[in-house]
Amino acid sequence: MSFFSDIGKKTTQATSKIAKETKLKMSINENKENIKELYEKIGKKVYESHVREEQIDLKEFVKDDCLKIDELSKKIDKARKEILILNHKKMCKKCFAEIEDDAKFCSKCGEKQTEEKTVFEKAEEKLNESDIAPENEKEAEIVKKELEEKNEE
Ligand SMILES: [Zn+2]
Question: Distance between CA atoms of 109 and 21, rounded to whole angstroms?
C-alpha cells in the first residue's frame, strides 16, 4: 500500500521478467547452435556419400536430421513468441515487425491486426488438446482422480 512497497513489488516483477527473457534468449541461442551442428552433420553425410559413390536416397538419408531441425526451429519460434508476450508485444501477421500487443494496425506496414489465430497456432492448440484429452471415460475418471489428489496436497 505504501509508496515504497509498491516500488519493491515493481522491481521484483521487472527482475523476474528480465530473468525469464534471459533464459528464453539462452535457449534460443542453444537451439541455434544445435541447428548449426545438424547442418554440418547433414553436409558431411552428403559429402561422404559422394566420396563413397553410394547410390542412396539422399533425402531419406538426412531425413532424421531435418526433422530434428524442424523441431528445434519450432522451439525457437515459441521462445521468440514468449519474449514478445513478456514485453507486451506481438508480431505483425504480414511483415513480422514487432508491434504493441494492443495495436489494431501495424505501425510499420499498416496491416490490420486481426485476432484470428495462425494455422500454426491452431495446429499447436489441437496438439495440446489431444495431449490432455483422455481417450475414454475410464481414463477421464483416472485423470479426474489424479487432479483431485493433487489439489489435496
Ligand atoms: Zn506489418
Answer: 27
User: Distance, CA 105 to ligand 1 centroid (Å)?
Assistant: 8
Distance between Cα 111 and ligand 1 center (Å): 5
Position 45 confidence tier, pLDDT thresholds 50, 70, 90? very high
Q: What is the pLDDT of residues 78-109, one digit of tens each?
A: 999 999 999 999 999 899 999 999 899 999 99
Residue 79 to residue 90: CA distance in whole angstroms = 13
> Which three cell numbers mark 21?
527473457
Residue 7, domain extent: 3-114
What's the CA-to-centroid distance between 73 and ligand 1, angstroms?
22
Residues 122 and 146 in one domain: yes
Domain total of the chain: 2
